[in-house]
Structure formats: C-alpha cells, structure tokens
Amino acid sequence: MSEAVSALQGAVSEGFARVKETGLRGMITLRCDLASGALAKALKAVLGAKVPGQRRIVDGAGGRVAWMSPDELLILCAHDRAQAMVGELAAALGREHALVVNVSDARAVFAVSGTGAREVLAKLAPVDLSDEAFQPGEIRRTRLAQVPAAFWINQDGRFEIVCFRSVAQYVFDILKVSAEPGGEIGVLT
Amino acid sequence: MSTRLAKGGAYLNRQKQVRFSFNGKQFTGYEGDTLASALLANDQVMMGRSFKYHRPRGVVASGAEEPNALVNLGQGGKFEPNQRATTTEVFDGLACTSQNHWPSLEFDIGVVNNYAARFLPAGFYYKTFMAPRAAWKHVFEPIVRQSAGLGKVPRDRDADRYEHFYAFYDVVVIGGGSAGLQAALAAGSAGAKVLAMEQTAHLGGRARIDGGEIDGMPVEAWVAGAAEKLAAMPNVTLRRRMMGAGVYDHGYVLGYERVTDHAPETAGPRHRLWRIRAKQIVTATGAIERPLSFAGNDVPGVMLAGAVRDYVTGWGVSPGDRTVVVTNNDDAYRTAIALKGAGLDVPVILDARGAGGGALAEEARALGIRIENGKGIAKVRGGKRVTGVAICTQAGEGSVLEEIACDAVAMSGGWSPVVHLWSHCGGKLIWDEAQAHFRPDPARAPTSHDGKPFVIPAGSANGPLDLAGVIADAHAAGLAAARAVGCAPLDCPLPEVAPQPEAALEPVWLMPQGAGPKLRMKAWLDYQNDVKVSDVRLAAQEGYESVEHTKRYTTLGMATDQGKLSNINGLATLAGQLNAPIPAVGTTTFRPPYTPISFGAIAGEARDAVFQPLRRTPIHDWHEAQGAFFEPVGHWRRPYCFPREGESHAAAVKREILQTRNSVGLLDASTLGKIIVKGPDAGRFMDMLYTNMMSTLKPGKCRYGLMCSENGFLIDDGVVARIDEETFLCHTTTGGAERIHGWMEDWLQCEWWDWNVYTANVTEQFAQIAIVGPNARKVLQKLGGMDVGKEALAFMEWKDGRLGEFDARAYRISFSGELSYEIAVPASQGRAFWDALLTAGEEYGIAPYGTEALHVMRAEKGFIMIGDETDGTVIPQDLGLNWAISKKKEDFLGKRAQERRHMSDPDRWKLVGLDTLDGSVIPDGAYAIAAGENANGQRNTQGRVTSTYYSPTLDRGIAMGLVHRGPERMGEVIEFNKVDGGTVMARIVDPVFFDKDGEKQNV
Description:
By secondary structure, chain A is of the alpha+beta class. Chain A contains 4 helices and 11 strands; from the N terminus they run βββαβββαββαβββα. In chain A, helix 1 runs antiparallel to helix 2.
C-alpha cells in the first residue's frame, strides 16, 4: 500500500505556545439516534466506550468518542484502524438506522501546547477558554477565525484541534500567528 | 509661552527623557507625556488648522474628547492620520506632522476661507453646488477635493499586526477612574469575575488631578491601594490602554486595547480587539467638560479648565504665565488654585454667575486671585495664540469693560456625563436641570434578552460630579452588578469621602448672553468641523428643527470627535433659537465606537496569507510547483491551465484539450462535492431532491441528476452513484458541496424530520482524479488491479477495487465525451496516486488539464455548467433537459413551480448552440439583438450567450445561449452584439458540436 500522508506532514511552529500538525488520525462519523440501545452496545463492543453526553468526549479502550450533534458522534482511533472499525461498527449496529463513514482523510489534526495554549485558541474561537469554563472531557464544535473546527483539551493541558483537510495550511498559519511571541495576554493560564 | 514646569507632573517619569519630532522639528519630552503635553512643554501651542476655515488651532482638551490636536503619526508602514495628540503617548523616535495646511502650519493659504467665512455659512455646499449641473464634476468637485480632508491617506501597507481576543466575564467595568476602581472593588470582592479597563495608561482619572481624600488618605494613595487590591483578586482582571469601544446587544462589549502604540518597537500585535461577553456592564466613563461659547474661543491657548489642570498637575506643563479662568461653575476654581499652586499667575477669574461661587471661590480669593462675578469674555485677542481677553458683563451684548493681557484662557461650561456606552444599546437619558446636562435615566436602561437591564452607569457618568457622590454611586453600581450576576456581596465597605459642597452651576450657552451676529460668528461650537453659534441659529431659521437634521445640515458633531465637546452646546443653542426646552430638542444618536478604532483591529489576524482561507486539494502543491495558473472556485484555487515555459494561457488550453482528445489527460476533480445519503427512506428522499427518478437506480450504477429549488430553478447537478440498497453518493458541483449538504439537512431537519435518512459530506475524504481520453483505459490497465474493461466497468457504472497499490473507487463517467474514468482514492494517498498516473501515462504523453479545458470540452459536447447556463432564473426545461425530469413522480422539489404558467410559457428563452458564420468567438455575455427598442430606449433583445469558447477540436468558435423559442428556430441566423460596438452573425444549431452519437465515450 502507498504511504499515507497528512496535509502538512507534521509541520511545527514554536511561539509562546507550540503548534504541531499531529499527522493522520482515524476518524469515523457515526450518525444514529444517540439514545438507542443498539448504539450503546455497539460502542461498548467495538470501542469499550459509552455514548458521550452533549459537548462531551469520552475514552474507550479502542479510541475516543466525541459528541458532535444530537444525532452525530465522532470516533477517534488509529488511522490504520478506521476502515476496519467502520465495518465493525456497522455490523454491531445491525439493523439500527445509522450512518457510519470513514472521514479520517477529510481532516487535519493540530496540537497546541504550552502555558499560552488557551490564549492562542481564545484569539480565534468565540469560546470561553478560561480554566473554570473549559476542562478535559469537553469538546467544542466552533470556528477558528473563518473556518469550522472542533477542539478539546487533554489532561496534560494540550489542546487537540480537528479541522477540514483542505484548510490545514490556513489553520496552521492562524495558530502560528496567534502564538507569536509578544502576543501573550496573560489572562488565561 | 507654554513651557515645562520645574517640578510636578504625576504622570511623568522625569528620569527618562524621550526625543520626538513635530513637522521635522526635534523636541524632547518625558516618558509618561502625551504628544499634546510634550508639545505644550515645548511651546508648540498651535498644533493644526481647522477643517473648513483653516484657522490656527491648539489643543483644547486633554483626553479622548480632543477635537483640534490631530496629527499625521509615524512614517511608511506605520503612518496613520488623524491621531489625537492627547491620547498618543510619546515615545523615543516618534515623528509626526500637523494636518490640513499648505504650504505650512504657520503660513497657510487655505486660511482665506476664514476671511470668506461670512460667505461659507451652514449649508453652503448644498446651496452653492446645485447649478449648473456640469460645474460639479469639472469645477466644484476638484476644488472641494483639494481642500477637503484632515490627515493624509496612508500610502504603504500597514507594517503592524492585529488580533482579536474572545473574553467572557460576569462584570465588565469600563473606566479606570475612581468610580471604575471602586465599582470593580465592590463587584470583585463579591466574587464576580470582573474585567476592568482604562483607556489611558493611568488609573485614577480626574480624581487624581483634582485631589481630595478617600478613606482618610489622599486620592493618589487610595488609587494605588485600590489597584493593588484588584491585582490581588484572582477573579479580577485590570487592563490599561484599553477603551470600551462599544456596547451591543446581550452584553457584547468591544474592548480596544492599544498594546504597542506607546512602544512601537516591541514585539506583539499593535492593537487587540477584545470581543467580550459580559453579564453586566458598568459604565464608569466619567464626564467631559463643556466649552463656553464666546468669540475667539478657538484661538490656540484657549483650553478647557479641567485640561489646563491636567497639564499643570499631571504633566508638569504651564500653559502660559498668565491664565484667565472663565466659568459658570465652581469646579474651574480648582484650575485657578492649581495654577497658583504651581507658581503661575491668574489675572482674573470671570464667573458668569451673578452670585459667584462657593467655598472654592473663597479659597481662590484667599490666594489673592481677583474674581469678577457676572462677567464673561467678549472676545479673545490673538490669532495664532492668545494675547489677551476683552471682558464684558455676561448679561449684556459684549461692550468691552476692560482688556486683560494673558497667555491662556481656561474655560468651563460645566460637565456632561459620558453617556455614550450607556446609549449604544438603547439606554435613554434624562435632562438634569441642576447640572444642566443629560444623564442616564435609571428607569430606561438597555435591556438584554430577559428584559432586564444589563448596563449600570457609575460615578460621574451617571450624574454625580463630586468625589463623595462619585464613589458612593460607583460602589452601589459595583454591588448591583454583582447581585445581578448572582453574587452575594460580602462586607465590602463604602469608602468615606468628605463632602465638598459647591455652589450651583448656572447654564451659559452664549457669552455674553446677548452677543450680536459679529461675536456669534466667532463663537465656535464644533472646533473640528468649524461650526459656530451663528451656523446653528441659521439652520434653525431655515427650518431645521430636528436636532438630527441640524446636525447633518451644519455638520455639527460629525467630525472624527463625534461632537464630544459640541453636542450639548449645539443643541442648547438650537433649543434657544427654537424657544424650546433642551430635553424637547433631545440629543443625536450615540453610536459605537466611542472614539475611532483602527481598521487593523477590526480585521484582526485576517491579512496577507490568512486574509481568507484557501482550500487546497491533496494535489495542490504539485499544481503550484508546475506553475499552474489558478482560478478561484469557491474558496478553492483550481488550476485554470498548466502553461509551459513561454506558452500563453490560450495555447496551454489548446494543447491540453488536444492532448486529452487525442491521447489522455488528467484532471484534479477532488473539489467536486461528495455527499452520502443513507437510510431506509434514502430512495424516497433522493426522488424528492432530484428532478429525475433516483430510487430505481441499481447498486453499482451511476445516473446524472438535476436539483432544483422549490421555485423550480436549477441549483445543482451531478452524477449519483448507488452504493447499496440504502446508500447513495451524490456528486455536486465544486461550489455546491456545502450548500447542497445544508439544503439536504434543511429538508431533513425541518420538513421531513420523520424520514429515516442520514447524510454526510465526505468531499474531502477523497482525492478524485479524472483520467480522460482514448488512452485512459490503457493507463489504468498499466497500473494493474481491477478490470476496467468495456464490459467489466461499463459506461455509467462504478466499482471498488485495487488499482496498482491503491484502494480505489472507479466511476466510469464522462464530462468531456471521451472514454473517461474518475477514480477516488483516500486523500492521504491522493498525491501518490496522481504521481503513479503520471508515470503510467508517460508513454501516452499524459498531461494534466485545467478548468478551462474542462469547460471547453464540455461545451463541445453541449453539456451545461451550473453558473454558466444557469443563473438562478433558469429551469431545466429551458436547457432542453426534459429527459432528466421525471413525469412518473408524484412530486419533487421544484415540480409545482415548473408547472406555473410563466415557467411553461413557450416564449421562454431556451438553450441552443450558436455557430458564428465567420467562425469567430462570440464575446462572453453577448446579447442577441432584436428589432426595435424597449421603453427605456434600449435595443430589444431575443437571447444571450451563456458559454462561448474557441474549440481547438473544431478549430472555430462555439457557443451556447438562451434564445427566444430557440429550439424551434434551428438554422435561423441571429445577430449578437460585440464589445467593440459591432455585431456578429450566428446560426442557431444543436448545442452538441462534437461526437453527437457519443461514440467516443462508449468504447
């Protein structure tokens, strides 16, 4: 098989926060009635994860599951697992009305880390990124400047950001300029 | 002479001297100086010229309200006009020039307007430039343009960067004076999350200059203590150099932070626009002093009394050895006392009130200052600076009683609360008779989504002007804000302030009250726009009774200072002339921003490379490396053509087409929309979306389909592939992907919510490449893998499999009329697949082609293009696409509309091919002309060109167009207009120019 490459192939920028394209990530869009028992069973069987509540992201042994909308989840896993997992989930869901589709390559993933990470994002997204308002376990679908994006924060304070692959360069560039030294605000830590 | 005092200057750091230049002259100042204070310290009293009459002007205020002292600041990429000297902090190397004069500030030709002032009254332009009509363009406009404008237009690209910042707070306090600090303390100690902002570099506001005691300590010490307390509260953020620019619906506040204006060489953004969501907003924005309207009140050296005090006490600057104070209230006596305290002379205090002042007057008198009650200024002597004043009785008409020599005049007409931010979102005002000012009406606050007030005015912005009143009011405001956001205030004590009783103010709208026309013509209301008392009176006489009309007629308050000094005086003058009470005349509308903010701050990071998102396919970098000429398609850039060295675009397009038609070409079709539709009701849903029958499509097959809006108009087209019984994949146009996905979701979520259908936009999951031409199959066969032979993968079929080392989905579809495949591979392998195709196709001379070749080839085949043949008014029937409109289906989106009389009218313009008799290419957008003229005297038309190209395949021009009853008129020759004024004859033909039987694609 030909080697798969991410949009920016691991580009990095060092500012007052560090911006990195993290490479390929497995991503599956799952649309279904989130209250259905079949879904809960399928997620448990395939990922060992629960159905996340509104704006939550949860962990399972096989990957993470994020709430996207009242009838849509995003499953994150290893890139080379995604295609197989689509089949496993579809099989586990059986006759339940659902749409399971591999969207791994439609996306780019960035990590923003460092003490200023919250401020970098708060320059681009209309989201309350203060410590008391935004904590691990939450995912926000929002925008970064002019493009749609979703992000969450990990226990180590590192943000992960998902956007469309076609705008990867734009997202990298706006994160980079927002993290430029001298732009520290000092209100979000 | 204005000069630097030997001592004093609370804002100054005398240890640090800075050098700057004004009109090329080198000056020095201190860190902490504003440009205005530093210029005054260097005896540069005259700082600019006025807009209309080019009168010499000096600084009149000391803050954001300054109308006169505007400069061109900086050079090159840091140049910016109309910068207020009073709000510009001086820094080492600052360079600025004065504005609105020629050839120099001292000698200006435009000042002739001043002598012609009697001929340039209010409405002069409206009255003068009416006739003759032609004169406007050739005579008046060039002259007006030459003499108009304040600062210069920047010539270079802005060298700085800017950014936004989204912030969320319980309480936002605007203003860092004593009121703002106390409100922040009260709200902060109650536990609210507070943001407090101060537009200047200093906290404490007026109180720091005016003195007094809070909690038994001097104001200076109390301010420092308050700042320390706030800094220690983790729930409070205090920002300086940040202005509350605007208050908007639902507690949205714009904070304009000038991050590096005072230190332009530091790293970081120049301005940061804070986009704040606040639950409660406290406007502790202070008050602005009003000028008095007397003749010559604009001569350089005439300043607001409070500003004079600021310069003396805050910046250690003397406005002149002798300053005459003129007032209608007690506060101005503080200026006289401050001047005396600095060792300067106050020849006289002119108090317009017959009964004179109170305790402060006594204090001034005790210092030996002469006080004249019931007196005013008849006129100011001097041109480029004050040389003296002529004194008169306020009650009279201006007979001069006495001449007094002086260098400066400190005037005070009372104080008006800064109600701008209160008013931005609908807060109403009431007229306070005692203070003669408008203040916020507590009963009519701006309200939020819940109908509850979300703005609380505090301190002098709410009316109280004495320190005790200000602190008490601000304390209450801070507590109220905390309570409104659900905090329970603890024991935050109200600071004790000793009351300082003052005698009542007496409104003075004209000095002397009986001033005749000559004096009124020199009594300025709006300094920046040169509006005088006489202008407002004239407007009233001419029937402009509404304050909004008077404002526009006279331009009162329409300059860059938005009338911060002139509004109240202007409308009081209007009220006087109309013999109406002031509140009945009302105010003009306060609109954000409070003072002008930079465009850079509004644009934020969006400039240069990140001005707009550019969408890139996985193969974009290759296109760029090949030197592709791009065209924008949505936010994508698609290669228009791939010119080789020395090749014109036209030549490249021709080569690409011939290569494809004769051998094989490649197209990056990744941008085409790909939407999955799945569910038990998917077939039913597809039948509603498309005009043709989609539910009968068999898995493994493809079908071309049309989508219409509910009004019947064609909105998108593309090939649908049926993946399995429950799943369809819909290809859309490049620009239509997001729009059509949203359209599908709209119907599913809002109308057919009970249908079991899910959609997903997977456009970017795949790199999709079209391999087109007679050798296309051979190239794929060379890669190896799945059988793509004529039988194994017939026309309008698709299948999954391996091609070389790639997982691929192959569609056998054609938009060119050639043998053609579109292959979708995962985007992460798109570039590798493209490279593999280039290698495999080498022996056939394989080459990429761009969107122009794509367009030409589809036009040769008579295929329509959304956006060319359609424009939102075209239905499929106009395009001869009746074959793609199901007659069996009971309903589909657009069906009912297409049956309406106008849509089924045989007189509609319909699609035909157009064959020029001379083989030339008809200009794009050309109209087919018809006999006669329409009601507007324009030539009648009978059709228009929708696509027109040079066809390399046929070596002549080809075109498609919509023509009146076109298909019925085959063979007829009609006439099209051309850009050069001539016409071109074209025969109406079938729109399929090439391979009518489709033999080439069916091999």
